[in-house]
Design a protein that fits this description.
The complex is a heterodimer of chains A (339) and B (805). Chain A is of the alpha+beta class. In chain A, 42% of the residues lie in helices and 18% in strands. Chain A folds into 2 domains: 2-90; 109-338, Bira Bifunctional Protein, Domain 2 (BirA Bifunctional Protein, domain 2, 2-Layer Sandwich). In chain A, a hairpin with a 2-residue loop joins strand 6 (242-249) and strand 7. The chains are: A alpha+beta (339), B alpha+beta (805).
C-alpha cells in the first residue's frame, strides 16, 4: 500500500510537470483526485489496510494528496501566467505609428521671448504695465525732452495721425505715464508695439520694444549695468559678454548702447555682427533730471534708469529666424517649428 | 558727418595714431564710426613714372614700346596711347594694381614683347578735370614735370586720405566739424589742440562803406559780413580740392570752395554773394513777403511766404536763408567783388523751411542741428585767412557783426555742482584728479572745493547743464569698460519693490495656453491695415467700426488705417496659408483694435485688447468651436449667455454672440459668412471666434463654493421626444429642469435624429435625465412621476411627443 502511494505520488508529479496546457492539467487532476481517481481509489481501499498500519498509511496518503494538489495549483498558476503572456504578446503593436488626438500648437516666438523677459523682471521686483499705442505728441516726445522741431526727432520716422496725435514710435511713452501715475519708488516694465515709418529688409514698420524704468533714491549707472548683466545672463546664458558704448537719447543722461555677444556666431564674428562678435541689444541710460521734473518727480531726491531694447532682433537671433518678415507672415511651416 | 584723417592732422598730432586706432577710439567715446573710406583703395601699386624712350612695336603698327623710369627701377611698358611722348611724366600701374575701372595689372607679353604694366588715364585713377587738369582727356594722364618718378600716385595726387563717416548725436552739434572732432580726440588722448590760423592781411577801406546789413527777424540770431574785392576766380589749389573731394564735396572755384571748406572744418555754413548783383548794396535778413519768389541753385523756383526767412538785397530775396542760395547773386567766373556771409539762424525756422520745400542741403542740415552763436567769430576769420592764403582777392578791413535780442557772445554759464552726485550717478569711484583732468581736457574749466564742483563749459557747448551731463562727459572719456566686470548687488542703496504682472496679460496668457493645448498657433499681425477691410467683412455703413483712424503719412495704402476689426488680419493669414498649400489651420491672435470716440481724432481712442481665433480644417464644426469657447470662458470668471450673432461677417444661422450679465456683447463665434470667404479667396469653411480680453480681465475673480456630495445614488432615465425643428435644445432643457423639480440633478442631450418617418421639419431629441436627492434613495414611482411630468410639460409647451422606439 505504501509502495503504491509512493508510486502514485511519483507518477502524479510527473504527469503534472508533463501537462502542457490547462486542459491537460485538468485531466491530471481528474486522473488522480477525481471521483474515481487513482488516489481516491486508494483512499477507498483504506478499510483493507491493517488497523495498526492505518495511521501511518493514512498520513502518507494525505501527504501524497496535498503534494499533488499543491503541484497542480502551482502548475495552474504557471500555465495561467504563460497564457496571459501569450495573449499579451499577440497584442503587440507598432509603437512608431502616429499618436491620436489634438496635437499641441505653439506660442509665437515673440510672445515666448516677452514672457521670459517679463518673468525675469517681475522676479526682480518690476511691475508689468501696458499703455496706449495711439499716443499724444506730449507723451511720445515732448515729455521725454524732445520738443517740437528738435533735431532728435530725426532719429525716428514717426507715423502721424494729426499734429498732436501719433502712433507711438517708442515704448518710452510709458515712462512718462508711469511717472505721472505712480509714486516713487517704483520699477516698471512695459512690453509693447511701436511704429516707425520705415520698411526694408531689416526694418519692419511695426516692431516690439520692452521698456523698463526704475525710479528710486540712489539709482545710478552701476545698478543699470548689474541688472542688464543679469538679464543678459538669463536670456542668453552664462557665457554672454557685454560691451558698453556711449550714445544719446534725449531722455537719458548719460546714455549708452549695450552690445552683447552675438548669439548667431557666439562671438566668433559673422555677417550679422559685421565681424565684431557683438550685437546691439539695449539702449539705456540714467533718467535725465529734466524728464523727472517734467513729470513731477523731485530730481534732487530721486534718480532712475531706463532701458528699452528692441525685441524683434533678439528673437530673430535666438531662434535663428532668417528674415524679419517671418515674424508677421504667420506661415504654418514657420510657426510649427516653434512647437 | 565725414571726417578726413589728413584734415584732423591740422589740429591734432596724429603721428602715433593710425586711422584704425582713431576709428575704435571715436566709437567707444560716443562718436560711432559707421564706415571708414580709404580714398586710395584702388591706387596701390601705381607710381609716377618718366618715359625715357619710345619705339614702335616691331610686330604691331599701333603699339609702342616705352622705357620708363619709376624711380626704384626701370620698366618696359607697351601702350597704344598716342598722347605720350619721350620725357612725359605719367601714372604707371605695375603688377598688383587694381584700378578704379576694375582692370587688374599683370606682366604680360604683347606680340612677343613683354610689358611690365600699364599707363593710366584719369578715369582709371578715379579723377576728372574738376579735380586735376587734364584728367578728363581720352588718353593717358600727363602729370606735371616736377612730379618725382617713384612717388606713389596717391601721394603725388593727394588721394591718400582716410575718411571716417561719424554718427554725431544730436546733442553734439559742435562736432559736426573737423575742429569739433579734433578737440574730442585731444581730450581722449590728452593731446593739445592746435588752434587754426586766423590771420589775414587787409587793404584800406571800411566794410561799412560797401555794404549795409540789417536784421529784421528774430529768426536770425547773428549775422557777420565781410567784403572782398579784386577777386581772381580760379581753381583752388590741389590740397584744398583734395580735402573737399575726400568729404564728398565737389570743388568748384576758389571762393566757393573756401565757403565749403569752412563749413566742413568749422561747422559753420557760409555764403558768398556776387557784390554787383546786390541791389543797393544792401543785405536785409527778413521774413519773405507773400508773393515773393526765388530761383535757387538747384534749378527750382520757390514761392515764398512769411514763414520763410530770406536774405534780401534792396529789392528782392537773394538767398533762402540757411537753406540754399539764389541764382541771381551767386559767385561766378566773372565775379570781382564779393560779400561773405556767416550767420546763425533759429534751427526750428530752418527746419520748417527745409521741410516745406523738401530740401536738405549741407547748410540746412547743420542749421537744423543747431549752430552755436559763437561759431561765426572764428569761421569768418578762417574764411578770410584762406582768401588771403590763396590770393583770391583783397579783404577790405572790418567785419560787420550784428546780433539780435540780448544774445551775449563768448560767455558760458558757470555751473555749481555736487561732486558726490556725479559719482553717485556713475556708481563707480573715479579719482578726483582724474575727473578734473578729463573735464579740463574737454575744455570744461573745472575746480573742486570740498564737494562743490564748479564747471565752465566751453562757450560752443550748450549741452552741459547738470551733474548728469558732467557724469556722461567723465565716463565716456574714462571708458565704459569699467562696467564690463563690475561686481556687487543691484539696487544696493534703494528700496525693495514687489513685482507684479498686469492682470490682463495673466488672463491672456492663460487663454493662449488653452488654445495652444488645443492645437492652435499664435500669429502676430500688423495693427495697421487697408481702408477696405470693413468692406471685405461686410460691415455696414453706420457701424461704429467704420470710423477708422487714418495715418497722415502712411507707408502704403495697405498700412493706411488703424484697425478697428480683428477678423481681417487672421482671415488674410488663413488665405495666405491656404495659398501656399498649408492645411488644417488653427490660428489665434491677441491684439488690439483702436476705436476713436470721434473723428477727426481729438482725444486718444479706446484701445481694446481682443483675442481672435480662426479654424480652417476638414470636419471641424460649430459645436467643436463652441466647446473650445466654453472651455476658454470657464477659465475666466465670466457669466454669460449666447444669442444668435449679429456680426455681419458671420453666417447668421451658424454663429452666436457671447453676452455678459450686463448685456454687453463681449465676443462671438461661428462660421464665417460665405461672401466674406469669397472676398478673402478662401474656398473652404472657416470658423471664427473673438473675445474681449479687457472685459474678461475686468470681472472680479471667480469664487469657488462647493456643496455636500449626496450619500444617495443618482438614477438615470433616457427619453426621446419628437419636436418641430424650430424648438431649441435650450428651451427643452429649461422645461425639463423645471418639470423635474427638487430631484433634478443633470440633463444631457445625447442624440438628435431626423428622418422621413418623423415627418418634415421634425427632429427627435434624446435626453439622459439624472435624478438625485440629498435626503433619500429615490423610488421607481417617484422617478416615473417626474418623467411623466417632464413629458407632459414638453408636450404642453412645445408639442413634444414621446418617441416610440
Amino acid at each position: 500500500m505504501k509502495q503504491k502511494l509512493q508510486q502514485i505520488l511519483k507518477s502524479g508529479l510527473e504527469d503534472i510537470s508533463a501537462a502542457a496546457d490547462l486542459k491537460a492539467l485538468d485531466d491530471v487532476r481528474v486522473k488522480y483526485l477525481g471521483k474515481s481517481g487513482l488516489l481516491t481509489e486508494i483512499l477507498r481501499g483504506m478499510k483493507d489496510v491493517a488497523p495498526e498500519d492505518r495511521k501511518e498509511v493514512g498520513s502518507l496518503a494525505n501527504e501524497v494528496r496535498s503534494k499533488i494538489e499543491s503541484g497542480i495549483s502551482e502548475k495552474l498558476c504557471k500555465l495561467e501566467n504563460e497564457k496571459l503572456l501569450a495573449d499579451m504578446a499577440k497584442e503587440t503593436i507598432d509603437i512608431t505609428e502616429p499618436s491620436k488626438g489634438v496635437k499641441k500648437g505653439a506660442l509665437h516666438p515673440l510672445t515666448r521671448f516677452n514672457n521670459k523677459f517679463m518673468e525675469i523682471c517681475v522676479e526682480m521686483g518690476f511691475t508689468v504695465i501696458q499703455g496706449p499705442e495711439v499716443e499724444t505728441d506730449y507723451y511720445n516726445f515732448e515729455a521725454l525732452n524732445v520738443p517740437k522741431n528738435h533735431p532728435a526727432r530725426d532719429m525716428q520716422d514717426t507715423f502721424f495721425i494729426s499734429d498732436n496725435i501719433l502712433m507711438r514710435s517708442q515704448t518710452s511713452n510709458m515712462q512718462v505715464r508711469a511717472m505721472e501715475k505712480m509714486k516713487p519708488p517704483f520699477k516698471i516694465v512695459c512690453p509693447g508695439r511701436v511704429y516707425r515709418n520705415d520698411s526694408d529688409s531689416s526694418h519692419s514698420p511695426i516692431f516690439n520694444q520692452f521698456e523698463a524704468l526704475v525710479i528710486d533714491e540712489n539709482i545710478g549707472l552701476k545698478d543699470l549695468m548689474l541688472m542688464i548683466k543679469e538679464i543678459l545672463r538669463r536670456l542668453f546664458g552664462e557665457n554672454v559678454k557685454m560691451r558698453v558704448r556711449p550714445s544719446y537719447f534725449p531722455f537719458t543722461e548719460p546714455s549708452i548702447e549695450i552690445d552683447a555677444t552675438c548669439q548667431l556666431c557666439q562671438g566668433k564674428g559673422c555677417s550679422l555682427c559685421k565681424g565684431t562678435g557683438f550685437s546691439e541689444v539695449f539702449g539705456a541710460g540714467v533718467v535725465n533730471p529734466k524728464v523727472l521734473e517734467m513729470s513731477g518727480i523731485d530730481s534732487k531726491k530721486y534718480s532712475g534708469f531706463a532701458f528699452g531694447p528692441g525685441i524683434d532682433r533678439s528673437v530673430m537671433i535666438t531662434n535663428k529666424i532668417p528674415n524679419i518678415k517671418y515674424l508677421f507672415r504667420n506661415d504654418m511651416r514657420f510657426l510649427k517649428q516653434m512647437r | 558727418m565725414k571726417i578726413s584723417y589728413n584734415w584732423l592732422k591740422d589740429f591734432v598730432d596724429l603721428d602715433d595714431l593710425s586711422p584704425k586706432q582713431i576709428e575704435e577710439k571715436l566709437t567707444v567715446s560716443g562718436f560711432e564710426v559707421e564706415e571708414v573710406l580709404h580714398m586710395n583703395e584702388h591706387l596701390h601699386d601705381v607710381y609716377v613714372g618718366k618715359i625715357t624712350k619710345i619705339e614702335k612695336h616691331p610686330e604691331a603698327d599701333r603699339l609702342f614700346v616705352c622705357q620708363v623710369d619709376v624711380g626704384f627701377k626701370k620698366v618696359q611698358i607697351i601702350t597704344s596711347a598716342t598722347n605720350v611722348f619721350e620725357g612725359a611724366v605719367v601714372p604707371v600701374s605695375l603688377e598688383g594694381a587694381d584700378l578704379c575701372n576694375g582692370v587688374q595689372i599683370k606682366p604680360t607679353k604683347m606680340r612677343g614683347v613683354s610689358s611690365d604694366g600699364m599707363f593710366c588715364s584719369g578715369e582709371e585713377i578715379g579723377i576728372d578735370d574738376n579735380y586735376f587738369d587734364g584728367a578728363s582727356i581720352n588718353g593717358i594722364l600727363i602729370l606735371p614735370e616736377n612730379f618725382k618718378p617713384g612717388t606713389k600716385i596717391e601721394d603725388a595726387l593727394m588721394l591718400n586720405d582716410v575718411v571716417f563717416d561719424v554718427n554725431v548725436t544730436p546733442n553734439r552739434p559742435d562736432c559736426n566739424s573737423i575742429v569739433g572732432i579734433a578737440r574730442e580726440i585731444c581730450a581722449m588722448y590728452g593731446k593739445t589742440f592746435k588752434e587754426p590760423d586766423l590771420s589775414f592781411k587787409t587793404v584800406a577801406g571800411n566794410v561799412n562803406d560797401y555794404v549795409d546789413i540789417t536784421l529784421s527777424t528774430d529768426n536770425c540770431y547773428r549775422y557777420l559780413g565781410a567784403y572782398i574785392k579784386n577777386i581772381k576766380s580760379e581753381k583752388s589749389p590741389l590740397w584744398l580740392r583734395s580735402r573737399l573731394l575726400a568729404v564728398g564735396i565737389k570743388p568748384i572755384s576758389n571762393m566757393v570752395d573756401i565757403t565749403n571748406y569752412v563749413l566742413i572744418e568749422q561747422g559753420q555754413p557760409m555764403h558768398a554773394f556776387d557784390y554787383k548783383y546786390l541791389d543797393g548794396h544792401k543785405i536785409c535778413v527778413r521774413q519773405a513777403k507773400a508773393g515773393e519768389e526765388i530761383a535757387v541753385l538747384n534749378g527750382q523756383t520757390y514761392k515764398l511766404d512769411k514763414d520763410v526767412m530770406v536774405i534780401a538785397d534792396g529789392k528782392k530775396p537773394v538767398v533762402n536763408a540757411g537753406v540754399i542760395g539764389g541764382v541771381n547773386s551767386c559767385i561766378s567766373a566773372d565775379t570781382t567783388e564779393s560779400v561773405f556771409e556767416c550767420a546763425v539762424f533759429d534751427l526750428k525756422s530752418i527746419r520748417l523751411t527745409a521741410k516745406k520745400f523738401g530740401l536738405r542741403t549741407d547748410s540746412s542740415a547743420r542749421y537744423e542741428k543747431g549752430v552755436n552763436i559763437n561759431t561765426p567769430t572764428i569761421a569768418m576769420k578762417r574764411a578770410l585767412h584762406l582768401v588771403d592764403k590763396l590770393g583770391c582777392g583783397q579783404i577790405v578791413s572790418g567785419i560787420i557783426d550784428k546780433v539780435t535780442g540780448n544774445r551775449k557772445l563768448g560767455v558760458s554759464e558757470k555751473l555749481t555742482l555736487s561732486f558726490s552726485k556725479v559719482i553717485k550717478i556713475l556708481g563707480v569711484d573715479i579719482p578726483k584728479d582724474r575727473v578734473l583732468q578729463i573735464l579740463n581736457g574737454l575744455g570744461i574749466e573745472s575746480k573742486l572745493v570740498g564737494d562743490t564742483l564748479t564747471c565752465v563749459p566751453p562757450f560752443i557747448r550748450d549741452d552741459i547743464k547738470n551733474e548728469n551731463d558732467i557724469a556722461e562727459e567723465v565716463i565716456r572719456i574714462y571708458g565704459y569698460d569699467v562696467y564690463n566686470n563690475v561686481e556687487g548687488k543691484m539696487f544696493e542703496n534703494s528700496s525693495i519693490t514687489i513685482g507684479q504682472y498686469e492682470p490682463r496679460l495673466v488672463l491672456e496668457n492663460g487663454l493662449k495656453n488653452i488654445l495652444v493645448d488645443n492645437g492652435f498657433y499664435e500669429t502676430l499681425n500688423y495693427s495697421l491695415y487697408t481702408a477696405s477691410a470693413c468692406d471685405k467683412l461686410l460691415i455696414p455703413e453706420g457701424d461704429s467700426r467704420r470710423n477708422v483712424i487714418k495715418i497722415a503719412n502712411p507707408l502704403s495704402e495697405d498700412l493706411s488705417t488703424v484697425r478697428t476689426v480683428m477678423a481681417h488680419a487672421i482671415l488674410l493669414d488663413i488665405s495666405y496659408n491656404l495659398s501656399v498649400g498649408n492645411k488644417d489651420l488653427r490660428l489665434f491672435e491677441a491684439g488690439r483694435v483702436y476705436l476713436p470716440k470721434s473723428l477727426p481724432l481729438k482725444e486718444l481712442p479706446v484701445e481694446n485688447n481682443r483675442l481672435s481665433i480662426a479654424v480652417c480644417e476638414n470636419g471641424y464644426d460649430f459645436f467643436e468651436l463652441k466647446n473650445l469657447i466654453e472651455n476658454l470662458l470657464v477659465s475666466t470668471s465670466l457669466e454669460y449667455k449666447i444669442e444668435r450673432s449679429k456680426e455681419p461677417f458671420l453666417h447668421s444661422g451658424v454663429s452666436a454672440d457671447i453676452i455678459a450679465k450686463d448685456g454687453k456683447v463681449i465676443g462671438c463665434f461661428g462660421k464665417v459668412h460665405k461672401s466674406v470667404l469669397k472676398n478673402y479667396d478662401i474656398s473652404q469653411d472657416v470658423y471664427y471666434a473673438e473675445l474681449d480680453t479687457d472685459y474678461l480681465a475686468s470681472i472680479p475673480e471667480k469664487k469657488y463654493e462647493t456643496k455636500e456630495v449626496s450619500k444617495f445614488q443618482a438614477v438615470e432615465r433616457d427619453i426621446a421626444v419628437v419636436v418641430d425643428e424650430k424648438i431649441s435644445n435650450a428651451e427643452l432643457i429649461s422645461a425639463i429642469k423645471s418639470a423635474c423639480g427638487k430631484i433634478f440633478y443633470d440633463v444631457e442631450l445625447f442624440d438628435v435624429y431626423r428622418s422621413e418617418t418623423l415627418g418634415k421639419d421634425k427632429k427627435s431629441m434624446a435626453y439622459k435625465i439624472v435624478f438625485m436627492s440629498n435626503e433619500k434613495t429615490l423610488t421607481g414611482d417617484e422617478i416615473n412621476a417626474a418623467v411623466n411630468k417632464v413629458l407632459k410639460s414638453l408636450e404642453f409647451r412645445y408639442g413634444a411627443k414621446l418617441r416610440q422606439m
